[in-house]
């Protein structure tokens, strides 16, 4: 399905998109299989990079229907694990880059729990972008005080490598990065990325919001998510003490007798100061669990882009850790996510047994999907349907407009980054070299009275060459953080079409309730329960938007302030250097003449 370049000395096989290979060992482990190409060359290929072809050799997703059958996906997941040693596979490019808002409309709910559910939307191996934290991370390896995380030989496919296609950072190739990120954020949690049957998620066993709206009696769950009314409307209840989680100390590990390697990160919650270690695939598991459990009510931004080739390069490790840090910080700041059992277990498990127990418990959680609303208790009177619909429309209008604004700033920022790191420094270098060339020509005149002038022109040329270096480095000090912040919010905003679709679908069901009552398909009490429950959903949406707005104001105030401060310092540096150059007088010493003193 994708190009894969083998790394030397790693027993891997290079494959190209669309190439047919023969699987010689489908279960090597760690998310890899062994394959043979038409040249007879053998090697390891990432499992996620290929798809099994049926016996007739046709693409099993080319049935003409963009919505895959859930039963087929379930059977595919089961059959994949039992693939014969001679099964064929093909690299097939999955479409990407679709705007998550393009399929959303008032007439179609877009409900990701519906029969055309989230698992049915094809998803590439892309992931998403996350955000603005300083990039001076300590990359020293080794942290023996931390629990080393689940063993690589864990059961139920836990040792699979979930590192997907190589991606580019936004300032190098925004198109490819955006395509992968939007795709993952849009299709929410694809069956292909989860590698497990959709029916393992109890909350998604039934289509649509009916599972919640029409339940005869909601069981009283142990976990409660209260919603109160504050100064700005409905809001989540925030914990009395907050915490963050520091992601640091990447360490390279290996498995399969050293054939395969991976990077492990140390996580230290600030409220316990007790460290645990996790690989990227563990973060991916947490993302999937949070998405399945809370995705109907809370936007869960995707993780940093997956990558296989080059994933051990220092620059990539640094960028991934920065974005994992931003993702974890964002989750820690959310009053519902941070207090959830699955998130707490991810940070606080003490040994492998405890990890496995918590992991399996999370995967059996029945309060997932739309059923998460059954845990929410608004401390306010029920809303009428007109007000509910107005609130939903207002959220949809704002998030769509903000999505457009964020994308515009990302486009402009990326163009500015390319200009600052490419053509603009070259122009300053050309000016510098031209001035120095002119000084050389003047020096050839033999006229004794122009030495000071020629030296000054030479130093001015060197000044412009130094300015070129400053211009090229400046985006890393200011634009980087602005772009990262926008990437993170683009990820958030890409989740809202599905959330809004869920709410619109519920509203439509309530509108249809009169007909259902008239035909005796539901009772008047059922209708009353539906109105009450859709009111609960509306309170949850408003509470989440209040949290979103408070974070948005804080984040953009911080990042814009940082950007402007760095820009001021940058131009003051240029001004000071040029002013010092201008103020050089004939007769000054060679050591001080024309030198550019940078801050």
Automatic annotation (TrEMBL):
Pfam families: BAR_3_WASP_bdg, PX, SH3_2
Segments of skewed composition (Polar residues): 104-114
Residue spans of biased composition, Acidic residues class: 153-162
Domain of life: Eukaryota
Keywords from the UniProt entry: Cytoplasmic vesicle, Membrane, Protein transport, SH3 domain, Transport
Gene Ontology BP annotations: cleavage furrow formation; endocytosis; endosomal transport; intracellular protein transport; mitotic cytokinesis; plasma membrane tubulation
Cellular component terms (Gene Ontology): cytoplasmic vesicle membrane; plasma membrane
Localisation per UniProt entry: Cytoplasmic vesicle membrane
Residue ranges, annotated region (Disordered): 84-191
Entry protein name: Sorting nexin
Organism: Callithrix jacchus (White-tufted-ear marmoset)
